[in-house]
Design a protein that fits this description.
Subcellular location: Mitochondrion inner membrane
Shape: globular
Main location: mitochondrion
Number of domains: 1
Catalytic activity: a ubiquinone + NADH + 5 H(+)(in) = a ubiquinol + NAD(+) + 4 H(+)(out)
Number of helices: 16
Helix content: over 70%
Low-confidence stretches: none
Number of strands: 0
GO molecular function, one term: NADH dehydrogenase (ubiquinone) activity
EC number: 7.1.1.2
């Protein structure tokens, strides 16, 4: 398995994708659990492509955490099913539904169950980190939306994820850890709306994925792991910095970037539900996270004396840059439609 183009890797990729699709399309908790396990079986060999000791350690941590949360989930769901009349009445007992929610939150890495995520992800490659922070969140988030009890746990986890994810990333110099804590902070914005509007939650995850894919690919291409390496790029790389800075500012949610659209959708939806304190606390966490986002931007701005000469930039970079800058305006009609279709009086 040392060769990244080994044919079996394509089978593992298909297993990972089919596991998530099975969890999303099933109507029974047992099939959803089987989808999660198939997804886990597919991604574990992909984490060990290079067979390095640190990757093996990270994959073992991931296997132990995911197996523990899956065991907790299936035992609780079986007990709830056997003590209820049908599958649809199994959530009448709040204690067991709370344990099921906690097991899914452990899978997602939401605070205060997030301590395993940074220690595991700092030993991984950028592309595997991209899968962990995006694709692996899809099935647990939709499964959380089906458990309609104990909304207080979701609110508390969202607040802790937004604030703790921002605070813990402030003094980090490892770019992978910064991106992991940023993902935990963004998870705090996705959790409150997963019970209210699944489409908006999916849009938030899609926008977040759209932003970090080119950012992670750039970090992987330049083999950048620490913040000080951003200042060690040569003259030819400086013209790309305006492209990377637009992605970082979009990740921070500064208008009129594309990342501002997702926060605007969540804010409008929560205010329509007469929630005032929750979006205020989420915005406090976002303001704290602005520190390390702007710190990265300042590092690249000081180095980039070539920043104003964009005539030689490639066409695809210009198009992605325009997409991030004008994303809020492009998707405004879609946002208004999504907010109104599920909130008709």
């Amino acid at each position: 398995m040392n060769n990244k183009f080994f044919p079996a890797n394509f089978m593992f990729i298909i297993m990972m994708i089919m596991g998530t699709i099975m969890s999303l399309s099933s109507s029974h908790w047992l099939m959803m659990w089987m989808g999660l396990e198939l997804n886990l079986m597919g991604i574990l060999p992909l984490m060990n492509i290079k067979s390095k000791n640190l990757e093996i350690e990270a994959s073992m941590k991931y296997f132990i955490i995911q197996s523990m949360s899956s065991s907790l989930f299936i035992m609780t769901s079986i007990y709830s099913y056997t003590t209820s009349i049908s599958m649809f009445s199994m959530f009448n007992k709040s204690m067991f539904s709370s344990i099921m929610m906690i097991s899914l939150l452990i899978k997602l890495g939401g605070a205060p169950f997030h301590l395993w995520l940074p220690s595991m992800c700092k030993n991984m490659s950028w592309l595997m980190l991209l899968l962990i922070l995006t694709w692996q969140k899809l099935a647990p988030l939709f499964m959380l939306s089906f458990i309609n009890n104990n909304y207080l746990i979701m609110i508390l986890t969202a607040l802790l994820s937004s604030i703790m994810g921002s605070i813990q990333a402030i003094n980090q110099s490892n770019l992978q850890l910064i991106m992991v804590y940023s993902s935990i902070s963004h998870l705090g914005w996705m959790l409150p709306i997963c019970h209210i509007n699944n489409f908006l939650m999916f849009m938030y995850l899609l926008i977040y994925t759209t932003i970090i894919i080119p950012l992670f690919m750039w970090f992987s291409m330049k083999s950048t792991l620490f913040t000080y390496s951003l200042t060690q790029l040569n003259y030819n790389m400086n013209k790309e910095n305006i492209f990377v800075m637009s992605l970082i500012l979009s990740l921070a949610g500064i208008p009129p970037m594309l990342g501002f659209l997702s926060k605007l959708m969540t804010l409008n939806l929560l205010l329509k539900m007469n929630m005032i304190l929750l979006p205020m606390m989420l915005f406090i966490g976002t303001l704290i996270s602005l520190y390390f986002y702007l710190n990265l931007t300042m590092i690249m701005t000081i180095k980039s004396f070539y920043i104003l000469k964009t005539n030689n930039m490639k066409i695809n970079m210009k198009s992605i840059l325009c997409f991030n800058l004008l994303g809020t305006f492009i998707f405004t009609p879609m946002m208004l439609y999504a907010m109104n279709i599920f909130n008709k009086s």
